[in-house]
Amino acid sequence: MSKVVMYSTVSVDGFIADTNDQVGPLFDWLSNGDVPLDATGDIKVSQPSHDYIRPYWDEIGVTVVGRHVFDLTNGWNGKPPAGIDHLVVVTHRPTPETWNPNAPFHFADGIETAMAKAQELAGDRTVEVAAGDVGGQVLAAGLVDEVAMDVVPVVFGSGKRYFGTVDAQHLLADADVVVRGDRVLHLRYRVRR
Description:
Elements: E1 4-11, E2 15-17, E3 35-36, E4 44-45, H1 47-59, E5 60-66, H2 67-72, E6 86-90, E7 105-108, H3 111-122, E8 126-130, H4 133-140, E9 146-152, E10 160-161, E11 177-180, E12 185-190
Parallel strand pairs: 1-8, 1-9, 5-6, 5-8, 6-7
Antiparallel strand pairs: 2-10, 3-4, 9-12, 11-12
């Protein structure tokens, strides 16, 4: 079975967007370096960020997101971001009427169904779960193996929380990955069972 990693870029006070779903400077680190992160060359990061993020992106087989993120990004126009093979969208609403049925997106009506589909599609590759409400639900269900975050030195004060509405304590191991990039700190923790 593949590893499940909950992931996002986050402010130092724990937010992945402000109350209006704006990310402000959270993703500035993806354009402040000189090392291309993908084939387009549009994303350029510092060398330490590249050396951490590129192998991580390469291990992802599937990303699980909520319908809110899917709608905000317009479904990435049918092409999963960062070269990911498949995307599983957790939603209780029908698939958009104009959606291309050949796009590598799969719609599931709950986290259990979504995670089963993601595991099937990922094979032995990593299942990434977007932080936020869906990520928090997957963590609360005990299905997350690691928590990964790119911490950016900004304070939002309020907004969309990294762990969503999780209201119970979850213990993490000491960080086994700590990488300092330019205006970002990459952290990864194993979830203690």
